[in-house]
Amino acid sequence: MIEILSAASLARARVTGALVADILQSMKRRATVGTNLLEIDAWTREMIFEARAASCYVAYEPSFGRGPFGHYICTSVNDAVLHGKPHDYTLADGDLLTLDLAVSLDGVVADSAISFLIGDTAHPESLAMIQTTERALAAGIAAAGPGARIGDLSHAIGSVLSEAGYPINTQFGGHGVGSTMHQDPHIVNTGRAGRGYKLQPGLLLALEPWIMADTDELRTDPDGWTLRSATGARTAHSEHTIAITEDGAEILTLPTPGTAA
């Protein structure tokens, strides 16, 4: 299903997007050496409930997972890159943490992810990976607008990732959002320009470039959810929800001014 939002729904989407971004920034500030992943999940739950919103993950039960996810946020550490299930793990200096959050508020969903380093230990390779996903995300957003094709976004994202020397996995990528978290169209992180669905105003898309340092192969944890690099290499992931407008693309998952970590 591809859903086109009305002006009223788009206004609600802006509120949802800001909530998602503000929660992620709050978790980034709180996530320090000694923080447990289960604490991050509990803090996220509190903020979602305070906003009278709902996490899209608690009851999420797709074909590739094992039962309902059962938590409020995805917490992926180091070699984990997608669907990281919160568990009893204490963050250490130098860890690379990815937080991925999708929330529904007033009938509209927004989805975003950030990767960052814990503590003070310098890790230039990890920082380069994070910055590469952020540049790829910016390139995908710049390519979006009315009349553009999905392939234009995929090509823009993939060009940045491949030019930086990273392998690209095409199993998981961006997607449409709206009244539900995962909708068509699917947006792979590499592709050919000029192909695919033509974007139109009112469409919401979650763009999410992610990479693994030296492989494009994933392995699944025994929890049935957490996806890791097959080689144990570090990973990074950046994501924004955008709205296609008459003039281009609007990023919905930006934090409220003054709340960024």
Automatic annotation (TrEMBL):
<feature type="binding site">
    <location>
        <position position="83"/>
    </location>
    <ligand>
        <name>substrate</name>
    </ligand>
</feature>
<keyword id="KW-0031">Aminopeptidase</keyword>
<feature type="binding site">
    <location>
        <position position="111"/>
    </location>
    <ligand>
        <name>a divalent metal cation 2</name>
    </ligand>
</feature>
<protein>
    <recommendedName>
        <fullName>Methionine aminopeptidase</fullName>
        <ecNumber>3.4.11.18</ecNumber>
    </recommendedName>
</protein>
<keyword id="KW-0378">Hydrolase</keyword>
<feature type="binding site">
    <location>
        <position position="239"/>
    </location>
    <ligand>
        <name>a divalent metal cation 2</name>
    </ligand>
</feature>
<dbReference type="GO" id="GO:0046872">
    <property type="term" value="F:metal ion binding"/>
</dbReference>
<comment type="similarity">
    <text>Belongs to the peptidase M24A family. Methionine aminopeptidase type 1 subfamily.</text>
</comment>
<feature type="binding site">
    <location>
        <position position="111"/>
    </location>
    <ligand>
        <name>a divalent metal cation 1</name>
    </ligand>
</feature>
<comment type="subunit">
    <text>Monomer.</text>
</comment>
<feature type="binding site">
    <location>
        <position position="175"/>
    </location>
    <ligand>
        <name>a divalent metal cation 2</name>
    </ligand>
</feature>
<dbReference type="GO" id="GO:0070006">
    <property type="term" value="F:metalloaminopeptidase activity"/>
</dbReference>
<feature type="binding site">
    <location>
        <position position="239"/>
    </location>
    <ligand>
        <name>a divalent metal cation 1</name>
    </ligand>
</feature>
<dbReference type="InterPro" id="IPR002467">
    <property type="entry name" value="Pept_M24A_MAP1"/>
</dbReference>
<feature type="binding site">
    <location>
        <position position="100"/>
    </location>
    <ligand>
        <name>a divalent metal cation 1</name>
    </ligand>
</feature>
<dbReference type="InterPro" id="IPR000994">
    <property type="entry name" value="Pept_M24"/>
</dbReference>
<feature type="domain" description="Peptidase M24">
    <location>
        <begin position="14"/>
        <end position="246"/>
    </location>
</feature>
<keyword id="KW-0479">Metal-binding</keyword>
<feature type="binding site">
    <location>
        <position position="182"/>
    </location>
    <ligand>
        <name>substrate</name>
    </ligand>
</feature>
<dbReference type="InterPro" id="IPR036005">
    <property type="entry name" value="Creatinase/aminopeptidase-like"/>
</dbReference>
<dbReference type="GO" id="GO:0005829">
    <property type="term" value="C:cytosol"/>
</dbReference>
<dbReference type="Pfam" id="PF00557">
    <property type="entry name" value="Peptidase_M24"/>
</dbReference>
<comment type="function">
    <text>Removes the N-terminal methionine from nascent proteins. The N-terminal methionine is often cleaved when the second residue in the primary sequence is small and uncharged (Met-Ala-, Cys, Gly, Pro, Ser, Thr, or Val). Requires deformylation of the N(alpha)-formylated initiator methionine before it can be hydrolyzed.</text>
</comment>
<dbReference type="InterPro" id="IPR001714">
    <property type="entry name" value="Pept_M24_MAP"/>
</dbReference>
<keyword id="KW-0645">Protease</keyword>
<dbReference type="GO" id="GO:0004239">
    <property type="term" value="F:initiator methionyl aminopeptidase activity"/>
</dbReference>
<feature type="binding site">
    <location>
        <position position="208"/>
    </location>
    <ligand>
        <name>a divalent metal cation 2</name>
    </ligand>
</feature>
<dbReference type="GO" id="GO:0006508">
    <property type="term" value="P:proteolysis"/>
</dbReference>
